[in-house]
Amino acid sequence: MLEIKVLTDENKIGELLDRVGTEPSFDRGVMAAVDRDEILAFSVFSLSADSMTIEYIEPSTDIPLADGMLRSTIHVALTRGKSEVFYAETVSKSLLETLKFIKDPEKRLLDSDKLFQSCCGCK
Hints:
Elements: E1 2-6, H1 10-20, E2 28-35, E3 38-47, E4 51-58, H2 63-79, E5 84-87, H3 93-98, E6 102-104, E7 109-110
């Protein structure tokens, strides 16, 4: 059964952060789509006082799976009281355009309201 959750296992978090070439930090989290013990997809995010920045979404080529990771990561931001969700340069802009989640490309701001709409890029 597929489960999407914020990881708490420091070893798994370290492995995934190594895979994308970034370091652990107190404000960084990893969300993963897990089937039994196999990680099928993941996202890396960082939190500030009032916002979240999504740093990575892997894989970016599996549109339905990436859409699920993006929506789940935005959900974490909203449930933690973050008013804005941004994307880093390391996230596939093409993916975000396909999914129609970009609200302001200059600020790299995502449209969190899209969380409550159906998937546009998965058809």
